[in-house]
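Bug #2210: token dump truncated for Amidophosphoribosyltransferase?
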Amino acid sequence: MSSSRNVHPTECTTAAPNAEPNASPSADAIPLEHALREECGVFGVWAPGEDVAKLTYYGLYALQHRGQEAAGIAVCDGRRVVVFKDLGLVSQVFDEQTLSSLRGHLAVGHTRYSTTGSTTWENSQPTFRTTAAGSGIALGHNGNLVNTAELRDEVGTLSDEAGFRGGHVQATTDSDLICELLAADAADTGLEEAAMRLLPRLLGAFSLVFADEQTLYAARDPHGVRPLVLGRLERGWVVASETAALDIVGASIVREVEPGELLAIDADGIRSSRFGVPEPKGCVFEYVYLARPDTTIAGRSVHAARVEIGRRLAEEHPVEADLVIPVPESGTPAAIGYAQGSRIPYGQGLVKNAYVGRTFIQPSQTIRQLGIRLKLNPLRDVIRGKRLVVVDDSIVRGNTQRALVRMLRESGALEVHVRIASPPVRWPCFYGIDFATRAELVASGLDTDGVRRSIGADTLGYLSLDGLIAASEQPKSRLCCACFDGAYPIPLPAEARLGKHLLEELGGEVTVVAAAAAETSSAAAAGTSGEAGPLSVGYGAGDALRRP
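Reproduced locally. Full output below:
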């Protein structure tokens, strides 16, 4: 059965079901993954009289695509905060018995893919702290901060209590630092005032949902890099990463949480406060891949944007072919648009195994050599003798497309023309997407024809950045396109103060560790990072180049 840890005997219980606290899946147990990783999904509900744990469970189900490493729910009943979390998918972490035990009038939920810190139980969210006054705080975070090292220095000056032993925090995420700093200040000022004082000091991307025993809070960084929306229930309120999660729980869409805004929801209603001047820079990659197609961002349907992306791709990179097929599922809307724009028939040439998750039992070497077939298998009768247009959302390392092109040729395709529904990814993301280092991004060192030769396609065409922006129907001035153009809207610190495992490398003092130096040397040797600064650091796994 489950084990539990009592962080504070009267205020909070954090429970880890079915797993050792420090268990983490082996990198080798994830041989087939998309070339990039999502970030996280957050969900919060304030609804007295409703089953808030089940509402949060279904909300997280709708956000499962944003992270598959861990899931958790915190519930608050006016007297205490209870957090239940574990490594795994939402359906693996929670069952009927667990959900029925989580009772309260408000809840915070999180589904995680790590962009800071390793995959450990401690790093799963919601993260929790007890204040000096004895109240609890539970917090979920989508995004990534760029001043994590400075925050760690600040936390290091606090007394060793509630999560610190010998000057080291047990969790190693920027989210945990946020929660610790909130707890340190909240005992004196209250959580709302503590948030108003802390949030302006957080640099980077953050969409936060957090709570104490009485009140639900939601906050979005002044650039609004990651989405966050507010919805209305008949007897309460909901905040979530995407509008699709509001739909699932029957909430009506009210509006987006504004950049630089803090919302507080309790028995007195909703309060809105401004902690920063809005400078919108929403992530354009949400339209390409990250968000669900049934989500709306900034008033634009993601599905409609992706179909338009495909139409524009057909205009920019036409080709004579017999069939347009998507790489399911993320390439499907763009492939539909490409077929419409080119008047080439659309078809399903690849079958996806929907049950292959991020972590599954490590295959034997014989099965591993089958590579991409664990996830995608060709329909030979459809493919044989055809000139194919294959539409995918992006190329990051090129490993997936290389294996896919080879498989299609082996299945009888006469020609394979690859069309990509985004520009070349040449720069790492530091705002919440787990891209690799710049040295690992295939387009950072090769031109389009070089990438084409690398993946073995007959032709290769990327959507232009102007075409992508036009399809989003947002002005370029309100979008972050840094992974495509290298224009980072939030200034980055020095390289030694960036990186996915920064907090695991830092002790009581901030030091430049050998791993960071080795990463820099590797990038320099690869000849792809001529610039000084943080561009050789990324948030991808170190073994990324060795993966299929």
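Output looks complete on our side. The mean pLDDT is 81. Marking as cannot-reproduce; reopen if the truncation happens again.
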